[in-house]
Amino acid sequence: MFGTHSLGLFAATVLVVNATPGVDFAFVVTRTLQAGVRAGLAGAAGIGAGCVLHAAAAALGLAALLAASAAAFSVLKWAGAAYLLWLAIGMLRASARPGEAAALDGPALAPDGSAPAPGGSGLAPGGWRTFREGLLTNALNPKIALFFLALLPQFIDAAAPGKTLAFAFLGGWFAVQGLLFLVALVFLVAPLRRWRPSDAWRRAFQAGAGGLFALLAARLALSERP
Questions:
Q1: Quick one: which of 3, 41, 67, 107 has the most CB atoms within 10 Å?
Q2: Side-chain-facing half-sphere of 31: CA atoms under 13 Å
Q3: What's the Cα-to-Cα distance from 22 to each of 57, 113, 219, rounded to whole Å?
Q4: Is the C-alpha dihedral spanning 179, 185, 188, 192 positive or negative?
Q5: CA-to-CA distance for 15 and 178, rounded, in angstroms?
Q6: CA 85, CA 77: separation in Å to the nearest integer?
Q7: How many Cα atoms occupy the beta-carbon half-sphere of 96 within 13 Å?
């Protein structure tokens, strides 16, 4: 289809990639526990939109630029690490304030630990903010762009007349399958919110989430271009 092959193997590979804990996995889990199903779905949708951007970049050859240019890779890498660190600092600041540590039965918090403004439209209180956060955590990760560049050609026929279309098809498949996995993850994690933990536990959770995102930021910052 569209010059591709071995789509069953491709689907299995995507499933393994999605199920491997990383930034996207951690983001969806923490946002679901902090603010519920709609916030988790908003984050998953943002990550899905980021995957669409990476798929478009691979199809247009922009991912090849990251693979060839150390400077371009470094710029995107440091931007992504800085954004993850900013999210981590917001979580850690929130964990230091008793009663404000992203209660698991409360609304989503802003990255700086403050409560969202009342009202608003769309996905949920803070939902568009969470969507943007998911989008940026995914789109600013150059490793994902290079992963697309390394993975997709393996499932494109060498003689395919329209390789751009093949890239777009496989990238779209990856984005849709990844989104479905994250949606399932949201509903799998959501029942944990029925437990009403103490404020100390909530603060510990927020601090742990902040530490995890700080670790992910450091891991991205220290990563080398393949």
A1: 41
A2: 36
A3: 21, 23, 11
A4: negative
A5: 8
A6: 12
A7: 10
3-state class of 39 per DSSP?
Answer: helix
- pTM given for the model: 0.67
Range 69-92 burial, b when 16+ CB lie within 10 A, else e = eeebbeebbebbbebbbebbbbbb
- Please give the residue that has the higher pLDDT: either 74 or 197: 74
Using only the alpha carbons of the chain, give its radius of gyration: 18
The position carrying tokens 């689907």 is: 11
Helices (H), 153-198: 163-189
What is the residue type of 95? S
Contact 179, 45 (CB under 8 A): yes
Alpha carbons 8 and 180: distance in angstroms, whole number: 17
Which residue ranges make up each domain of the chain? Answer: 7-221
pLDDT, tens digit (0-9, with 9 covering 90-100), for 33-66: 888 899 999 999 999 999 998 888 877 776 566 5
Q: Is 63 helix (H, G, I), strand (E, B) or coil?
A: helix
Which two three-digit tokens encode residue 72?
Answer: 């371009």
Q: Are 51 and 175 in contact (CB under 8 A)?
A: yes
Closest CA to 70 of 177, 159, 146, 13: 146
